[in-house]
Every structure is written in structure tokens, then in C-alpha cells.
Amino acid sequence: MTETGPSRIQSEKRAAILGAALEVFAAEGFRGATLDRIAGEAGLSKPNLLYYFPSKEEVHEALLSGLLDLWLAPLRRIDPDGEPMAELLGYVRRKLALSRSHPRESRLFANEILQGAPRIGPTLSGALRDLVEEKAQAIAAWAETGAIAPVDPRHLIISVWALTQHYADFDVQVRAVLGRDDPLDGAEAHLEMLFERLLAPRA
Amino acid sequence: MTETGPSRIQSEKRAAILGAALEVFAAEGFRGATLDRIAGEAGLSKPNLLYYFPSKEEVHEALLSGLLDLWLAPLRRIDPDGEPMAELLGYVRRKLALSRSHPRESRLFANEILQGAPRIGPTLSGALRDLVEEKAQAIAAWAETGAIAPVDPRHLIISVWALTQHYADFDVQVRAVLGRDDPLDGAEAHLEMLFERLLAPRA
Amino acid sequence: MTETGPSRIQSEKRAAILGAALEVFAAEGFRGATLDRIAGEAGLSKPNLLYYFPSKEEVHEALLSGLLDLWLAPLRRIDPDGEPMAELLGYVRRKLALSRSHPRESRLFANEILQGAPRIGPTLSGALRDLVEEKAQAIAAWAETGAIAPVDPRHLIISVWALTQHYADFDVQVRAVLGRDDPLDGAEAHLEMLFERLLAPRA
Amino acid sequence: MTETGPSRIQSEKRAAILGAALEVFAAEGFRGATLDRIAGEAGLSKPNLLYYFPSKEEVHEALLSGLLDLWLAPLRRIDPDGEPMAELLGYVRRKLALSRSHPRESRLFANEILQGAPRIGPTLSGALRDLVEEKAQAIAAWAETGAIAPVDPRHLIISVWALTQHYADFDVQVRAVLGRDDPLDGAEAHLEMLFERLLAPRA
DNA sequence: AATGAATGAGCCTTCATTCAT
DNA sequence: TATGAATGAAGGCTCATTCAT
């Protein structure tokens, strides 16, 4: 009757650990991160951390497992039956917003890919590829009707990824160029213009 | 006459070490790389490696120190007195070519930035920023004359970086989407079109 | 009237723990055994186990303390006034039966002795030695009357131990030689013959 | 031309480590033994030990790998064409001598078997079983000619193992019974008599 | 110029034990 | 009684670095 799921303290601690781990893994990479630092930042001892997760590897996996879903959500929301230009610019906006609200997730992902995707490689060739293929067909259809300019849909999607994530992943460099306190509003305007011009059908 | 600089064997070994180190650092990150692996791939013993470089840190630094120069060369070649459109598209082409011919350097750089640029941070705010500022002014001047569309020059440069480097740094992901054997020629065409449309002055 | 000794549940749990501990200590040795495994096999939690026994050490000791009594029972039953040959062969039979019915106890004991008897050393030099001495005199007396062949009684007893326990302690090796499914009946016949011939008085 | 095998210092250190490891593994079992103690007893640091052997497991294996050969040497020397009684009694004598000169090896072996032979199990069912089978046939042949009493040859061999090894493995207990300073000469006489009577053909 | 040998510091993980409930 | 949570101490192993040759 009283099926008890993970107790409150369980979920709170697990959440605290994952938060700290996200911070550390994103900043230092998998090998660079130490359980000591993660535990410290989560406010518990190292063996206590291992009471909640069986190993460093599994903490990392717990972070990655949800990540791709989060990451692809903006793409998933593209509606083949919507208004093409609005759908695509909306996608760009959502993806940029996500990158800016979740920079640590972005860097965690970047780290994983940079190292050759040892852990989520299969998912890339599976779920990711499938989703891209699906959306690419919608975009291609739009291009054929002349609603948008003819572009390679897959490279278009890759461009969105590259441009939006760069602001999160290469933040230090961006800041060095733009100045410490730039609100990055220029980025949004710039990307919007960029994709508008790229996609605008010829007059 | 008998002033002896570094003997040939010296420089050869140093070069071999740096080559191996580039491979390993790019693939595994700084902490993930081990001197053992670098030494092994360079074909010498670990203590011998440390005879040529005093520490792991310094091997890494030796790689990074030359890197920014290489990395900024395409940008540097933009000629304020040249034909605007040709200059900028030439820049894009050169930068993409560089990323594709030097993917390991690209990843090494990406790793460093992702970790917060602990080693080349100062250079970013110095030399890098200065160069960008200089070229940005030239681009801004072009925009004012109407030779190109009005764009934020700094975000333009950032876009070039993002789009070109992405193909090197996120290779695994790109391959997952495009297929293992895609020659990536589509990337070049796509980027050229992208920047052409972005920069083309209004009719 | 209401003096309450250990409640039934108390003794039942203690018994369950000791049963599981016997299994685990016999199979893995003292250091190899973990409270986790013992608790798991006893069907309770680790802290709960430590509610019944204050420490791993004491679980082990509880097992050992009763063990020597059990182990020496067959020897104790030798009757100085009985028929010599029957008494001794009966002893051999009882000891072999015990080893076969209690292989885990045998291995627990073997482990303890192998490690130098850190816990029951004193008992060996005390109770064990005394009992052996007592029975040795009886055997010596039999030898003097010519009822059995003249043998060193202490080495005789040691031989019984060695031969009977070996079948329990070295079971894997015995099985490797005799085959997985040998019922070990041959052992009984063999040992009986061995001691019969050893002890039969000269014609 | 100058094919160099392991340098002298290599073999010396390896030998020292194996010596110390034999001591510790025999006394504490695999899990009970610590690299710290082995290294300490061998006179070097723990990482230095791991410079010579890649892991604790491999130190252990290095000890075990040669052990069975040593252990079976006495059995192997039984000559089917020799004088039966002399061959068998010689075997007993050699095996007892070996157990007494190599008590640590004996205990190392006992530990391994007690734990279920996790590492040399296959060898037991292979090389060991084959050798026993071979010698058992020779013994059976002797029994058939009447040169020795009819005994189960495999149980005979097991008896030799049990009786000889017991003096090494259960040394503490034997000493508790016989006295700290007994030279154990009685053991030799006893075993000789035991097997003589067991094997002597009926008059 | 090169390498075998050595080590201190640190890392991930295990485990007996304690604490709070 | 019973257990979820926590921890200190240790254990095996890695690795950058040093030393001696």
C-alpha cells in the first residue's frame, strides 16, 4: 500500500550530487574531475557520495543519460505543418536560449564529443541521427515548395548547433572578445539575422 | 662559427614529442593524457621525454604557445584594402581549410577553452582581442560604405570560428549525422552560401 | 518468574547470523568475508547484524568457541575401558562422518589454524593438548598390552585428523582427482583399511 | 648479440618480492595479504613493487604458477619399473621432506584450495588429474601382481598428500600437541610405518 | 642523451563501524 | 528492533617526477 520510492533525502542528495558533478565534469572533463571535489561541492564525504552512486562512472552516466533528450528538445519541437520561416527561427531562438540557460550541460556534452563520444556514441548514431533525418525531410520539403531558400538541411541543423553552443562552450573566448560584461544580446540579434538571410526565399 | 644552437637531433626529438603530445592531448585532454602514452607514441622513454621538456605542463604550453598564431593566421590575412566580399569569403574558406587540415590543433584549443583557458587566458584578452578589434574596425568600415550588409563584426568573426571549428571538434557527431564516409564537401558549399547571403548588401 | 532470557526471536536471529557467517567465513576466510555478505545471507541489514554481535571479530569468535568442542567430540568418546580396536576404528569412523557432515566447520577450523591460530591458539595448548594427552595414555596402555600394534599415540591421532579433514578441506582437489560425482564411499573403506592394518597387532 | 634478459637487479628484486609475498600470502591468504606488507617485507615501496609486478593478482599468480610443478615432483618421480614398495615409500619420504622444507608453499597451496581453487582449478582438473591417473595405473598394476596389498591407488595418493601436508599446514596445532620443540622426527617414522603396513602384501 | 629504478601524492573504491531515527 | 545514512581508515593502483647510471 505504501510503496515507497526513493526517500526525500535520497532524491535531494542525489540531486545535490548531480548538480555538483555537472559543475565539475563540465569544467574538468571526466578524468580531470575528482570524486573529492564533487563530494566537497555537494557537501558530503567521498564514501557518502559512493553510497548514492556506485562509481564515478555512474555519476557521469546519470548526467549524460538525460542530456541528449534535453539537448534535442528544441529540434524536436519543429512542426512540419507550421510556417517554415517561423518554425526554423523559433528553433534557433530556443536552442540559443537553452545553451545560455544550461551552459554547464553544453560543456559536459562538448567534453564528451571532443573525447570521441566514448559513452554516448551509440545514441548519436541512433536516436540523434533518426531525429535529424526526420526533421531534415521536413526542411527539404519546405525548400522544395520555395517557402525557404534551398539549403542542405543537415548542414543547416549543424550550423544551428555550432553557432548556439559556441557561445556556451567557448564563453571565455567570447568574453575576451566582447568584454567581460557584454549581455550577449548581440548574439541573439546576430544569429536571427544570419538565419533569416540564409533562409529567406529569393525575391 | 662554432656557436651551437640546438643540435639537429635535439629539434627532431622535440618535434617528435610535440607531435605525439598533440595527438594525445587533443584526444584525451590535459588530465587524461599521460606522459607514458606521449613518450610511447614519440618512441622514447618517459624520463627521456622529461629531458627535453621539464614537465608535462611545459609540453602542453609549448603546443599552445604556437597554436594561437596558427589559429589566427587566416584572420590576420584579411586585407582592409581588399575587396570586402572577397576578403571575408576568403577568410571563411581559409579558416575552414585550416580546421580540416589541423583537427588535432582545433581540439587541443577547444579543450583549453572549455576548461576556462587556464593557460592562454591572458593571451586571449591580449593579442587575440587586439587582432579582433583591428579587423572588426575594417569590417565595420566596409559595412558603413555599404560594401557589405551591416553586421556586428565581432559576432561575425565568432560565427566563422564557431562554424568552421565545429566540423573538427564535433567530428563524431557530424559523422553520426552525415554518415561515416561523407567527404564534407557539403560543408564548404554550405558555409560559403551562408556567409554570402549574410553579407550580401541589400539590393 | 519474569526473568527474561534472550527472547526466541533473539536466538533465532543469532542462529541465522551464525549460519550465514559459517558459510561465508569458511568460504572466504576471515579477511575475505564481509559483513555485507553475511548480513545478506542471513536476511538482515548490516547494522542490524551488529546489533546482535558487536563486531565482525565477535561473530567469528562465537563460531570458533563452540567449534573445538564439536571437533573433539569423537576423540572424547574413546573409552579406555572399551575394546581397543573397536574404539579406535570407531573413532576414525566418527571423525570422518563429522568431517563429511560439517565441511564448513572443518574449513573454518582449517582457515584459523593456517593463519597461525591467532584466536584459538591458547585453547589448542590448553584443552586440546590435555585431551590428547589423556587419550594418548589410554592408547599407549593398549599398545603395551599388545592389543594394538605399537604406534606413537599422538601421531596416530594427528593422522586421523589429517586424513579425515583432508576430504572436507581439500574437496576441490579430491574432486578433481576422483571425479565430480564420486560418492566418496571409497574414502571410508580406504581409511578403515588403513587404520586396521596400521593398528592390527602382529600375528 | 648482447640479448639481455632481465638485469640482475630485476631478478633480485623480483625474487625478494616473491619471497616476501610467499610469506605473507601463506600466512594471511590472498585477501588478507596487503601490498604494503609485502613491499615492506621485501624492503621496497608499494609503487616500486608494482613496477616489478603489474598487480597483486599477478604476484600471486607468479607464486602459484610454479607451485604445482614443485608440488607434484615427488609423485612424478615414481618409477613404474622400480621396486613397488621402495618406490612408494620413497614417494612418501620425498613428499614429507618437501612439505617440511617448504611449509610456506604448502600453506599457500592450502589457502588456494580451501577457497575453492579459484585460480588453479583448471590445472587441477588437467595436469594434476592426468598425472594422478598415470601413476594410479602403475600402482594398480603393482597391486594386481601382488607386489603390494590391494588399495585404491587414488585414495592412497590422497592419503600421502593429507598426511604429509598436514604437518606443514597445521603446524600450530601439531606443535600444541607435540610440544614447541619436538623435532618432528616421530612424524617420519610414523608415516613410514603407516604406509609400510598399509601396503605390505599379505603373508 | 638515454634509461632503469624509485617514490610521494593522489585517485577510486571497499568496509567495519557509528549515528540518528 | 531495525535500518538508512554517514564516515575514517585503509587498500590497490596510477602517474608525474626524480635519481643514478
Automatic annotation (TrEMBL), chains A, B, C, D:
The keyword DNA-binding applies. Keywords: DNA-binding. Residues 34-53 bind DNA. InterPro entries: Homeodomain-like_sf, HTH-type_TetR-like_transc_reg, HTH_TetR, Tet_transcr_reg_TetR-rel_C_sf, Tscrpt_reg_YcdC_C. Gene3D superfamilies: Homeodomain-like, Tetracycline Repressor, domain 2. GO terms for biological process: negative regulation of DNA-templated transcription. PROSITE patterns: HTH_TETR_2 (PS50977). GO terms for molecular function: DNA-binding transcription factor activity; transcription cis-regulatory region binding. The keyword DNA-binding applies. Residues 11-71 form the HTH tetR-type domain. It comes from the Bacteria. This is TetR family transcriptional regulator. It comes from Palleronia aestuarii.
